[in-house]
Automatic annotation (TrEMBL):
GO terms for molecular function: DNA binding. This is GapR-like DNA-binding domain-containing protein. Pfam families: GapR_DNA-bd (PF10073). InterPro entries: GapR-like_DNA-bd (IPR046367). Residues 6-76 form the GapR-like DNA-binding domain. It comes from the Bacteria. Keywords: Coiled coil. The keyword Coiled coil applies.
Length: 78
């Protein structure tokens, strides 16, 4: 029984390692896209913010916008 458990653990660890390697590759690809965008003049910080906004549900985005407006108003930021 311990051998079977040990084998399963080893297989699970190996799967995680493969996925981590894939994740690194994808992260490298994303970095390359941002570098390409920067090279043609796009603002990377703004692009990252847009990606975050597009991931949000519309209601969540509206709530964030409303809160930002409230905070800006309280701080005297146009």
């Amino acid at each position: 029984m311990a051998e079977n458990t040990d084998e399963r653990l080893r297989l699970l660890i190996e799967r995680v390692e493969r996925l981590e390697e894939e994740k690194k590759g994808i992260s490298d690809d994303i970095r390359d896209v941002y570098n390409e965008a920067k090279a043609v003049g796009y603002d990377i910080k703004i692009m990252r913010a847009m990606v975050r906004l597009r991931k949000m549900k519309p209601d969540d985005r509206r709530e964030i916008d409303m809160l930002m407006d409230t905070y800006k108003s309280a701080l005297g930021i146009d």
